[in-house]
Amino acid sequence: MEMRRRPLPPLLCLIGLWFDSGFSLCWIKSWSAIGDSYAAGIGAGEGPGTSDDRSCSRYGDAYPHLLDDLMDNKKAEFKFLACTGAISVEIKDQAKTLTTASQDLLTISAGGNDVAFSTVLKKCVYLTGTESACDSAFDAASSLIKTQLGHNIEDLLTSALRVMKDKGVVVYTLYAKFFNAVATGCNGQNWVLFDPTSRKGTNLGLKLTTQRRERMNQMVDTANQQIRTAIANSRPAFYSFDSSSAMQSYHPDVSMAEQWGKYYQSDIQWHDEASKASSPI
Hints:
281 residues
């Protein structure tokens, strides 16, 4: 049976374009991937093998693994340090394990856990709750984005720069939007992780209305902008990769969330798509 691999995420499509234009990665002798679950790739491909990978939920088709497969230099040293749930100070500690001036390439994903993205998902999507609890989670996340995120990322990038060689490249992957906020068919759905009708036939989950989905997407946009500003303040040579924009350039009629995450379509059930999710938040 022929084994077919899932289409490459946008970051790797970009690398592919470099290859098509004669770009070579042979200059990379040592590189690392640090970050949170967005880099660890929880749910992408085969499950973790080693105990260390299991503790951080690093999956086989996480983009660092796929990028490593593309390396011209098959002897390049690769360290996969990203860990699901890590906040920026913990990702800073990941960078500190690397030798000073040792890295040709460093990929980073960080910030979502600093501003409690997961709490918003729990209160507004995956667990039963109230509108007021959901609103409070949004407000708390918005406050953290405004007051803390930029400083946290600048501090992280200071540590990242110390491990880079003179001509090393840092690629910072920004966060993709959670949802398609245009489709109306899922306005009456909820994504509670257990049976929402199990308690006296009452539907306990909040609905994924267009307004709620758009609010979550706007939260991601605001966080990404704070990260962009932190990158600009740290060093102009940093390259931030906006996965949402890249996916739009390849598939202008759909969003990143539709391509790689759980989403609604009129002819399928969302939970059937869950097993196909690529790089979740």
